[in-house]
Design a protein that fits this description.
The complex is a heterodimer of chains A (325) and B (313).
Chain A lengths: L2 H29 L4 H6 L7 H10 L6 H14 L13 H36 L4 H15 L2 H15 L21 H35 L2 H8 L4 H23 L1 H14 L5 H10 L3 H29 L1 H4 L2
Helix pairs in contact in A: 1-13, 5-6, 5-8, 5-10, 5-11, 5-13, 6-8, 7-8, 7-11, 8-10, 8-11, 9-10, 10-13, 11-12, 12-13
Chain B lengths: L2 H17 L3 H18 L1 H4 L36 H37 L1 H16 L2 H14 L6 H12 L2 H14 L3 H8 L4 H40 L7 H10 L8 H29 L19
Helix pairs in contact in B: 2-4, 2-12, 4-5, 4-7, 4-8, 4-10, 4-12, 5-8, 6-7, 7-10, 8-10, 9-10, 10-11, 10-12, 11-12
The chains are: A mainly alpha (325), B mainly alpha (313).
Chain lengths: 325, 313
């Protein structure tokens, strides 16, 4: 396929997905029963009928839902205005931005560690097929898949805090709150160990499985046999001919996994009271803070769609079959 | 006897002969069956009811009591027997998982067959829909959906909402799998011949395609069940379950919220998690083995075997 056509198709698909998410978010917001003014300012706030009417006009709620209100909402979202959180009484976008960094730190660390470990182990397992390494790797990924993320977190939390004296939650100790990051780095690292470990175990299994089957497929190709016939050692064949081709599916998997990554963050941050988007999502759910919930959903969904698109572009540079013609 | 029944019986016997030699499959079947039996016979497995508070001689509730003869898995924060909650929780976890799994399987098969058989714009539309669903992060979507539906204050159990939301979102992998199978089957000679003698679409799907993909649907359903059980446990842990009908996930939600960890009550948070792993692992093992038996894809590679095959000059 032509590279330009490929990109155009991907752009079109990303836009369609984006449209689905935006329309869904808008519709869900409108589905909420009762007065839409309430949906904007919160259920339990007392206001007079006059103020309500004023708000109604201010938010354009007296106009038809479609297209007027939809377009207004669209314009607000595009400018980063996601409404006001009921429980925190702050703009949703402000709340989200404050938590974004922490979550990126956590899932970034978890992803990097699990990719390194997963690729290495998967490579070994696929190369030494049907040996103890392979069986061990397969068993691990099977069990890692069946373990509920939050439960693994609880177990590690209990074990780590009891036997290793690791902190049970948060990002920094209370005494270090507000100090600049570089001075409390050891403390932050301490707090990150358990949640990162949970995420690494969770993500690793799949990378391992994909790498294993991918390397097995590549090793079955004829050019590997040719390389071997030339007298290259197994390690040389693996490094020079097999590895680069076998890595391709990992790039796709990183993108596909992003949604899964986000789910993992919600569970892990909840268990470790880690002050990120995931924990905030759970709190918003418990407190029934709909503007916050929907703002967070919009942010997460748009990020994942964008990242998927970027992975698709990256893929065209890595896979010569897309580049050709 | 009915010849169709005899045929089915012979097929099942053949299947069993292959299956019983597969240790992974047997282990999976054992795990799934024991979980189902525990759920069905829950009242026979325990002398208590899940809401009953255990008390000492002075009538005080035995909270966070460690495992003993009276309570094999100890008690929770309100002095209720954990083992009793576990076997009754199996009912909720498995019911939600199975019903959601069956809904997903039904939608997935329907869409997969429609897309694969008819092709064209129908196929395009359905496959793009699955693409979109695959990209949107699933847990945030579910949480927003469940929260919104709950806000409507419908008079339905939270469990019904969970079943529907999981069932209506997790059909995409099934649809893709079924579609690819239908694509190869519909090109076969007997389908062309059936059409040539005037068979309609409905007849061909029912008589020639469905019987071919049925085993695959069964295998995939077992796999979907494991996903559904896992997702249910996660949502229940986040507080979306029915507190009056606790599943394993709800138990973990209670255990975590009521500080079982800091109280050292491992008997409260360990068993429900192990039960979830028990059921999901069983479904995954069984599903994988079934799928493997039904479409074997063998691959061997050139670096396998002895290094000495390549002789150095």
């Amino acid at each position: 396929m032509n590279r330009r056509d490929y990109l155009l198709r991907k752009i079109f698909f990303s836009l369609v997905t984006l449209a689905v998410v935006v329309v869904l978010n808008f519709l869900l917001f409108r589905v909420l029963p009762g007065d839409p003014v309430r949906a904007v300012i919160g259920r339990n706030v007392r206001i007079s009928a006059d103020t309500q009417q004023a708000l109604r006009e201010q938010f354009g709620l007296d106009r038809p839902v479609f297209p007027d209100q939809f377009l207004t909402a669209l314009g607000q979202w595009a400018r980063g205005n996601l409404g006001v959180s009921w429980s925190l009484r702050k703009p949703v976008s402000e709340v989200l931005l404050a938590k974004l960094g922490n979550t990126l730190l956590l899932i970034g660390l978890g992803q990097i560690l699990s990719i390194i470990l997963g690729v290495a182990l998967g490579l070994l397992a696929g190369w030494k097929r049907k040996t103890a390494v392979d069986v061990g790797a397969l068993t691990f990924s099977l069990i890692a898949w069946a373990i509920p993320t939050f439960w693994l977190g609880i177990i590690l939390l209990a074990a780590g805090s009891t036997w290793l004296g690791l902190p049970t939650g948060g990002i920094v100790s209370p005494s270090n709150v507000g100090k600049p990051l570089y001075t409390v780095l050891p403390d932050v690292t301490h707090h990150l160990i358990l949640p990162t470990l949970t995420l690494t175990i969770l993500y690793m299994g799949e990378y391992m499985l994909i790498m294993r089957s991918s390397i097995m497929e590549v090793l079955g190709e004829d050019y590997i046999l040719t390389a071997k016939a030339k007298g290259m050692s197994h390690w040389q064949v693996l490094r020079k001919h097999a590895l680069k081709n076998a890595m391709l599916p990992i790039v796709t998997l990183i993108a596909i996994n992003l949604g899964f990554t986000v789910s993992g963050a919600i569970y892990v941050e909840t268990v470790f009271s880690y002050d990120g988007l995931g924990k905030m999502f759970q709190t918003a759910l418990v407190k029934q803070d709909y503007p916050l919930l929907q703002g967070a959903f919009l942010l997460l969904a748009v990020s994942v769609i964008l990242a998927n698109f970027l992975a698709d572009i990256l893929y065209t540079y890595l896979d010569p079959r897309v580049k050709a013609s | 006897m009915n010849p169709r029944w005899l045929l089915l019986k012979r097929n099942l016997l053949d299947f069993w002969k292959t299956f019983r030699r597969n240790r992974m499959g047997l282990a999976g079947a054992f795990l799934v069956l024991t979980a189902i039996l525990a759920a069905v016979f829950a009242p026979l497995l325990t002398p208590y009811t899940p809401t009953e508070t255990m008390r000492d001689a002075e009538g005080r509730a035995l909270t966070f009591a460690p495992p003993s003869v009276h309570a094999p898995l100890g008690t929770d924060d309100a002095g209720r027997d954990v083992w009793t909650q576990l076997v009754y929780g199996a009912r909720i976890s498995l019911t939600v998982g199975f019903l959601a799994g069956f809904i997903a399987m039904f939608i997935g098969s329907l869409f997969g067959i429609t897309a694969g058989y008819f092709g064209g714009w129908v196929d395009n539309l359905l496959m793009r829909l699955t693409d979109v669903l695959l990209v949107i992060p699933d847990l945030p979507l579910i949480l927003v959906l469940v929260a919104t539906v709950r806000q409507l204050e419908l008079k339905v159990s939270p469990l019904v909402i969970l079943i529907l939301v999981i069932g209506l979102l997790y059909w995409t992998s099934t649809a893709r799998l079924i579609r690819s199978q239908v694509l190869t089957i519909k090109e076969r000679q007997y389908v062309y011949r059936a059409r040539a003698i005037g068979a309609g679409n409905w007849h061909i799907v029912r008589k020639h395609i469905l019987p071919q993909i049925m085993p695959l649907i069964v295998a995939n359903t077992v796999l979907i069940l494991s996903t559904a059980i896992l997702i249910e446990s996660g949502l229940a842990f986040l507080g979306l379950g029915d507190p009056t009908q606790p599943s394993w996930g709800t138990m973990l939600n209670f255990a975590f919220d009521r500080n079982a960890v800091s109280n050292g009550a491992w008997w409260f948070y360990l068993p429900p998690g192990l039960a979830i792993i028990w059921a999901t692992l069983g479904c995954v093992l069984l599903g994988n083995v079934l799928e493997e038996m039904l479409n074997p894809r063998l691959a061997s590679h050139h670096l396998e075997g002895e290094q000495s095959i390549v002789t150095q000059p």
